[in-house]
Amino acid sequence: MSVRVVGSTPSAYQYPLLIKQLLLTPLAIAPEQEITYQGRVRFNYRTLKERIGRLANLLAGLDVQAGQTVAMMDWDSHRYLEAFFAIPMMGAILHTVNVRLTPEQILYTLNHARADFLIVNSEFFPILAEIAGRLETVKTIVMIVEEGASAVAPIPVAGEYETLLAAASPEYDFPDFDENAQATTFYTTGTTGNPKGVYFSHRQLVLHTLGCAAALGGAPNQGHVHREDVYMPITPMFHVHAWGFPYLATMMGMKQVYPGRYQPELICRLIAEEKVSFSHCVPTILHMILSHPQASRTDFSGWKVLIGGSALPEIMATSAQKRGIDIFTGYGMSETCPVLSIAHLENRMLERSHEEQSVIRAKTGRPLPLVDLRVVDEEMREVEHNGRATGEVVARSPWLTQGYVGTEADSESLWGGGYLHTADIGNINAEGYLKVTDRIKDVIKTGGEWTSSLQLEDIISKHEAVHEVAVIGIPDEKWGERPVALVILKPEHVGTITEHALRNYSAKAIEAAGVSRYGLLLHVRFVKTLAKTSIGKMNKRLMRADPEALCL
């Protein structure tokens, strides 16, 4: 096909989609807006710009060059926000290190990413001491020491972050360069083998920011996010750029609140004192917050919470609404930057009961602008949008990772047929809402049929005695697999209900819900803990490996 390419005037500015452009709006419309770390450190967007410039000069003085990788090990902080901008704006690559991995996995990711420089909070010095002698490429280290703390680095460092920052100039001329230049890398929290590295360009991160802004800002009422909101992440900044929302909050000029290490009491206090109105997290983190004694004394009304990473149980959605929380689901994965869809409700749906709304709020949502989201069969044919036809969820959008770092075979598998394969199973209804029913690796194959572990979890979680639940498949000679519910009881119900009684309740509820008849083969086991990944998602691989080890 022959197309006509738009020409340009020789003097016209060829505007590249670079992360630095996200700073233009807040500096123009909200330069005095506040950014705070734990309520202890406060400054405005003008100071943020200066600190970004100082960090760039600090790193340049340590001989950081374009194309090199600067790794970051810190809790959620204003320092991390500065790194989100300064490092890629220099043309370098920001490696956000998952500090909840094991020391051996952290060592692997630093070496695999070929990190040249490391900025590390002194809290992680024990990890650094354990791996320092095996770091292959790190040449220079800058340490972070919290105000009032003292620490001695286990190996030589270039200096302390704030001291070096204060000595650096706030003026830095951030250059233009190709918008397809790599900006970030991080490693997935997979449950098998070594973590896989994914990477994103400036163009991808800017377009993801704009896509999220269009989706959240375009919501007519429920889940509407705007520049007068107060933003606080409760998804780690090392994990998919805190789902990209620090970039969104900055571009929109919101007040931003960074909590450091997640402590339920501190988070409740910050929500109350800083008037936080928009956050995001996985269900287990929200459950941890709302179960803390401080939560009973905290007013959550007006708090918008986007849930992702794991399925949102309908009972949690209903409970949150009754506490005044506008809770709703987003969907994506590390490889997708991550947001692909959001479960917004139309205004007419807001007249329904909390329970009826929860059915929609717990769905995986409708696609963002610029996202081609499909459910396909094994031949890559799209299935009918009737809320029943099931297949694998695949996607295209301008912000999906183009592959895994140094893993060509896995990259080709990820992109088989020209669509990114999520390895999630789901369906789409007539209104365009996607519902993920399971991970391909977690679906339970009983009697030749698929049974959704997520559906069973949602049913069991509605029992008043259930604190947390995970459903896994275990081998069975007759049926191939049978479902087992691993249940943590609420403290007040321990000893008041038996596994047999909860199984009978669940069987009746499963039958009433019309779930696969093989769900009636469910066993129930009371456990003291549930295995989770480093970001709080259920680790069903470990649970399947030794479910008896978890039992009471």
Would you give an account of this structure?
The protein has 552 residues and is α/β, with parallel strands linked by helices. The protein folds into 3 domains: 43-177, Rossmann fold (3-Layer(aba) Sandwich); 200-439, ANL, N-terminal domain (Rossmann fold, 3-Layer(aba) Sandwich), CATH 3.40.50; 444-550, GMP Synthetase, Chain A, domain 3, CATH 3.30.300.30. The strands form 6 sheets. The protein has a 7-stranded mixed sheet with strand order 7-6-5-3-4-8-9. Strands 12-13-14-15-16 form a 5-stranded mixed sheet, with helices on both faces. Strand 1 (34-37) and strand 2 (41-44) form a beta hairpin. Helix 2 (45-61) crosses helix 3, helix 2 crosses helix 6 (161-167) and helix 12 (314-322) crosses helix 13. The radius of gyration is 24 Å and the shape is globular. The mean pLDDT is 93.
Q: Top keywords for this entry?
A:
single chain; 552 residues; alpha/beta; Rossmann fold; GMP Synthetase, Chain A, domain 3; seven-stranded mixed β-sheet
